[in-house]
Amino acid sequence: MKMFRKAAMSGLAVALVAGAVITTASAPAEAKKWYNTPGAAAAGGFVAGALVGSALSQPRYYYEPAPVYVEPAPVYYARPAPWTPAWYQYCSARYQTFNPNTGYYFYRPGQARFCR
């Protein structure tokens, strides 16, 4: 919507400038024809400015690219194999008492289990 307002304002500015340029042109004193009068120049400037302004104020359409489907990463529900980096991450995140040197964690005071 902002771009449409900007184009409309620039079209209005062009129309006003074109009208001012045409109306300030003075006709020689000997030319007394109806189309050389200041009123006709003002009307011609208004028409020319309106045509140029309306041509510039046409909305410009922007089409966003179509959404691209990105396949989600696979989800694995099986536990990782022991002694792999994924296994270390899994056990460390799941059990606070996990000991990476032995592979065991304490689930009750004094009782240890191997992380699988």
Q: What is this structure's SSE topology?
A:
Layout: H1 2-24, H2 38-56, H3 85-94, E1 104-108, E2 111-114
Antiparallel strand pairs: 1-2
Helix pairs in contact: 1-2
Organism: Stappia albiluteola
Keywords: Signal
Protein name: BA14K family protein
Description:
The protein is mainly alpha-helical and 116 residues long. It has two domains: 2-56; 85-114, no CATH class. The protein has three helices and two strands, in the order αααββ. It has a two-stranded antiparallel sheet. A hairpin with a 2-residue loop joins strand 1 (104-108) and strand 2 (111-114). Helix 1 runs antiparallel to helix 2 (38-56). It is rod-shaped.
Keywords:
116 residues; mainly alpha
Topology order in helix (H) and strand (E) letters: HHHEE
Domain tally? 2
Low-confidence parts, pLDDT < 50 over ≥5 residues? none
Based on CA atoms alone, the radius of gyration comes out at 39 Å
Q: Rough shape?
A: rod-shaped
What is the CA-CA span between the terminal residues? 59 Å
Largest sheet: 2 strands, antiparallel
Number of helices: 3
What structural class results from the helix and strand content? Answer: mainly alpha
Q: What is the residue-mean pLDDT, rounded to a whole number?
A: 76
Tell me the strand order in the biggest sheet.
1-2
Helix percent reads: 40-55%
DSSP strand count:
2
Portion of residues in beta strands equals: 5-15%
Protein name: BA14K family protein
Organism: Stappia albiluteola
Signal peptide: 1-29
Keywords: Signal
